[in-house]
Design a protein that fits this description.
The structure is a single chain. A hairpin with a 6-residue loop joins strand 12 and strand 13. Strands 3-2-1-4-5-8 form a 6-stranded parallel beta sheet, with helices on both faces. It has a 3-stranded antiparallel beta sheet with strand order 9-10-11. Strands 6-7 form a two-stranded antiparallel ribbon. By secondary structure, it is α/β, with parallel strands linked by helices. The chain contains 18 helices and 13 strands. Helix 7 packs across helix 8.
Length: 392
C-alpha cells in the first residue's frame, strides 16, 4: 500500500473551514501539510468551542494529519523561515482576508513568479475585481449572497443549510484543482496560480435554480424537506413516531409508487399527475396522499415495501443517529487520530483507491512542530533547492 501524494509538501496559511478542508484532504492522500499559524493565536477555529475533550469540533475535523508551526511573518527572522519553507514546497494554500497576502508581500501571482513549480491556491470570498472583492466572506454571508438560503427552508422563511456548503464546496474545488495542477506539473514542469472564489462555487452549485430563472421559469420556492423540482418527494411521519423520507424522481418511479407502494394504480392513470411538472403543481395533494399512507404504518414496514417496489427511501436521522450509524461501523469507516489529549475517532476520507494508504496523522497543538521544523530548515544549505530533506 502507498499514499499517492507521498513526497508532496504543502504549506498553508489557513483558517476556519475552506482552506483547512482542502489541505486536510491532501494530507489524507499522504502529503506533508505544514500549517503556519500566528504565534500565541493560531487558527481561529481552534477556539470555536471545547467539545472534543477541550478542543474545538471544527478544528479536530479539519486538521488531523498536519504539522503546526508558529511563525511571525512580520518578523524578519520569521519571514526568512517561512520563505525557506515555501521555496521547498510543492503547494501553497491560503484563505486570509482580502488583501492580507499582498500586505505580507505574498501576493499569489508574485509567489507563482518567484517559484515557477509552486501550485498556489488563493481562496477568497468574491474573487479579485468587481465591487465586492474587498468584503470579508463567511459561509452564511456567501450563501446569502449566492441565493442558496432563498431555496432552503420554506416559502417566506429562508434558512441556511446546516452543512456549511459554501465552505465545504470551496475546499473541495480547491482540492481537486490542486490535484489537477500537480498532474499538469508532471507534464510541463510548471506550477499554477489557482484563485477560488466562494461566490463562484455557490453559483455553480445553484445550477438548476439558475437555469430555472435564466430560461424563463419561476424562481424556485423552497419546500422544506423536499425539492422544488420534483414531487412527491419529502418527509412523512410514521405510525411509530419516526419519519420516513421517500418519493419519486421520474415518471417510471411514480407509476411504481402508485401501483406497488400505495396500491392505487388509478393515481398513475390520472392525467393530473402524468408528468413530473404536473405533480409539482399538485404537490400538496400528493403529499397528503402519501402522508396518510405512511402515518398508518411503521417505518420498518414502509422501508421494506419501498425497497421491494424499487422506491428510494431513508430514515430521517439526527446527528446522534449518524454517529452510531451501523452502515459506517459495519464498513470500517472509523479510525483513530492522535491529539494532545489522546486518541479521538475520525472518519476515513470518503474517496480512496483500494490500494491507497491514508496516513492516520494527529491533530497538532499550536506550534507543536515549530522547533523540529526550524531545526530542519537550519540544516538546509542556502543553495540547495532539492526537496528531499523536507519530504523525508
Amino acid at each position: 500500500m502507498s499514499a499517492p501524494l507521498e513526497g508532496i509538501t504543502v504549506v498553508s496559511i489557513e483558517q476556519a473551514v475552506a482552506a483547512p478542508l482542502c489541505t486536510r484532504h491532501l494530507a489524507d492522500l499522504g502529503a506533508r501539510v505544514i500549517k503556519v499559524e500566528n504565534p500565541g493565536i493560531g487558527d481561529t477555529a481552534r477556539y470555536y468551542d471545547t467539545t472534543v475533550r477541550g478542543m474545538a469540533a471544527h478544528f479536530v475535523w479539519l486538521n488531523h494529519g498536519k504539522e503546526s508551526v508558529e511563525i511571525d511573518l512580520a518578523d524578519p527572522e520569521g519571514r526568512e523561515f517561512f520563505d525557506r519553507l515555501v521555496a521547498r514546497a510543492d503547494v501553497f494554500v491560503s484563505n486570509l482576508a482580502p488583501g492580507a497576502l499582498g500586505r505580507l508581500g505574498l501576493a499569489p501571482d508574485e509567489l507563482g513568479g518567484l517559484h515557477p513549480r509552486l501550485v498556489v491556491v488563493d481562496i477568497s470570498g468574491y474573487g479579485t475585481g468587481g465591487s465586492l472583492d474587498h468584503k470579508r466572506a463567511y459561509d452564511l454571508l456567501v450563501q446569502a449572497e449566492g441565493g442558496s438560503c432563498a431555496i432552503t427552508g420554506r416559502a417566506g422563511q429562508p434558512a441556511k443549510p446546516g452543512i456549511p456548503v459554501a465552505d465545504i464546496g470551496t475546499g473541495l474545488y480547491a482540492y481537486s484543482a490542486v490535484l489537477a495542477a500537480l498532474y499538469e506539473r508532471e507534464r510541463t514542469g510548471c506550477g499554477a496560480v489557482i484563485p477560488v472564489a466562494m461566490l463562484d462555487v455557490v453559483a455553480e452549485m445553484m445550477g438548476f435554480a439558475l437555469n430555472s430563472v435564466l430560461h424563463g421559469g419561476e424562481e424556485p420556492v423552497p419546500v422544506g424537506m423536499g425539492s422544488p423540482m420534483v414531487a412527491p418527494y419529502g418527509a412523512y411521519p410514521t405510525r411509530d413516531g419516526l419519519t420516513v423520507v421517500l418519493g419519486t424522481t421520474s415518471d417510471r418511479e411514480w407509476l411504481r409508487l402508485t401501483e406497488r407502494l400505495l396500491g392505487r394504480p388509478e393515481l398513475g392513470d390520472d392525467p393530473r399527475y402524468a408528468r413530473n411538472s404536473d405533480r409539482v403543481r399538485h404537490r400538496a395533494e400528493l403529499d397528503e396522499i402519501l402522508g396518510s399512507w405512511c402515518v398508518e404504518r411503521d417505518l420498518e414496514d414502509i422501508q421494506r415495501i419501498a425497497d421491494e417496489a424499487g422506491i428510494g427511501n431513508a430514515r430521517l436521522n439526527g446527528v446522534r443517529d449518524l454517529a452510531a450509524h451501523p452502515q459506517l461501523a459495519e464498513r470500517g469507516r472509523w479510525r483513530e487520530a492522535g491529539t494532545p489529549v489522546g486518541g479521538v475517532p475520525v472518519l476515513l476520507p470518503p474517496a480512496l483507491a483500494r490500494h491507497w494508504e491514508s496516513p492516520s496523522g494527529g491533530v497538532p497543538a499550536l506550534g507543536a512542530d515549530t522547533a523540529r521544523i526550524r531545526a530542519e530548515v537550519a540544516g538546509w544549505p542556502e543553495s540547495d533547492d532539492h526537496r528531499s530533506r523536507l519530504n523525508s
